[in-house]
Amino acid sequence: MSDIISGLDARMVLDSRGNPTVEVDCYVGGNLLGRAMVPSGASTGAHEAIELRDGDSSRWLGKGVDNAVNNVVETIQEALVGMPVDDQKAIDEVMIELDGTPNKANLGANAMLGVSMACLHAGAALHELPLWRYVGGVAGGLMPVPMLNILNGGAHAASNVDVQEFMVMPHGFDTFPEALRAGVECYHSLKRELKADGLLGGVGDEGGFAPNLPANEAGLGYMVRAIEGAGYSTEEIGIALDVASTEFYKDGAYHMDGKALSGEELSDIYASWVDEYPLLSIEDGFAEDDWRSWSHCMRDIGDRVQLVGDDLFVTQSERLSMGIDSKAANAILVKVNQVGTITETLETMDLASAHGFNSVVSHRSGETEDTTIADLAVGTRAGQIKTGAPARSDRVAKYNQLLRISNEVSEYRSPF
Ligand code: PGA
Ligand code: ZN
User: Fold this and answer.
1) Confidence (pLDDT) at 8
2) Cβ(177)–Cβ(405) under 8 Å?
3) How far apart are CA 160 and CA 256, in angstroms?
4) Residue ranges of the chain with pLDDT lower than 50?
5) Which ligand 1 atom sits closest to the C-alpha of 44?
6) Ligand 2 centroid to 104 CA: how many Å?
7) DSSP designation for 330
8) Catalytic positions
9) Nearest CA to 314 among 279, 280, 289, 285?
10) pLDDT tens digits for range 90-118
11) Which helix H or strand E contains 150, and what residues bound it?
């Protein structure tokens, strides 16, 4: 069977927020072997690779992706046809060179990532391997600890809660399916608790409940009630937060709970939360360029809690290197569309593990039924994945793919 890319196709499809996104098909020897869809963020970091949008406000509120689709079927296809589909590094390098900008502004990270992922799928199909094994090779897979975002706030909800994500992290279980079951039962338990308090309304962009709360700390209280109400102890299920604080950092201060806080004051609040709650992980506790506060917090509580850089690192090795040098965090969030190719994603993850950083593979708030990140998390042995609440198929699709993979991969180990 030919291993040569014979063509690419691309089209606009819709994401979970009703916005256009890019889908790419990869043909090998005339056969359709790989297809992938690109995710999209809302609390997007300033240093992320550029998502190319048409900007024509009379169509799709300016969010059309016709130009990105054209870049795939014209410029990128022309450059990639004839290349072996299983040389992922060469494919991604050709696109990076073709784009010629540091932030993929020319071709668009959405166009490039769609191609990169479709080729990854096609390479796996060519070798008749499950995607996770094609990614992982001889190292074999590791099932990740799931982080389920069951209470949504920030830019993903219409509530008064500043913290973007309150996640349960079922770390004290022997297998992935058991951990997932526990996390899902906490979701149902939270629903009961919120209903009992008259706070049950709709859900946010990632499927978690989105109540108004008297203060952000009350969200932590509800998480404990959800865990204990489901019959579990906080020894086996912890809490992870994504504060996404860049969103409320203005004029040098963090605006939370109606107060303007310095980085040090906010760090003290996190320290008190770590003392009082089973809080295992804090993502984007500080803004994307506030390196000083990140390092201060690491010195203060970095030995007791996972501090995850999302907007801070944007899955890019240059930013991660800065964080390693300044001891700004001890973990990195991995979002494929922040950097725009699979090869660069894997390079960043290698750099992280070489320096003892944990990796958390992540979805975006705008998602599709694409499940590539489930296989990526297993194949890279990342150890952790966050992909929303167990609600709505754009989130559940990833958990279901992990359940399928768990039939073949039993290794499961908590980083905590
Ligand atoms: P986003 O949110 O996809 O809207 O950026 C996810 C996150 O911040 O981790
Ligand atoms: Zn985040």
Assistant:
1) 98
2) no
3) 10
4) none
5) 5
6) 21
7) S
8) 206, 335
9) 289
10) 999 999 999 999 999 999 999 999 999 99
11) strand 145-152
Query: Roughly what angle, to the nearest 10 degrees, separates helices 317-325 and 291-301?
Result: 50
- The torsion of the CA quartet 346, 347, 349, 354, rounded to 10 degrees, works out to 140
Report the pLDDT value the prediction gives residue 274, as an integer from 0 to 100.
98
Distance CA 332, CA 351 (A): 10
- Distance from the CA of 191 to the center of ligand 2, in angstroms? 23
Domains and CATH numbers, the chain: 5-128 (3.30.390.10), 137-405 (3.20.20.120)
Beta bridge partners of 170: 237
**78 CA to middle of ligand 1, Å?**
33
pLDDT of residue 1: 81
Q: How far apart are CA 8 and CA 31, in angstroms?
A: 11
Pocket test for ligand 1, best of 19, 43, 337 (most atoms within 8 A of CB): 43
Instruction: Annotate 185-208 with three-state secondary structure.
Output: HHHHHHHHHHHHCCCCCCECCCCC
Tokens of 245: 């604080």
How do residues 113-149 score in pLDDT, each as one tens digit?
999 999 999 999 999 999 999 999 988 999 999 999 9
Ligand 2 ion: Cβ-proximal residues, 5 Å cutoff: 242, 284, 310
pLDDT for res 368: 98
pLDDT at 267 (0 to 100): 98
User: Cα dist. 83→87, 185, 360, 380 in Å?
Assistant: 8, 47, 32, 25
| Pocket around ligand 1 at a 6 A CB cut-off | 41-44, 242, 244, 310, 362, 364-365
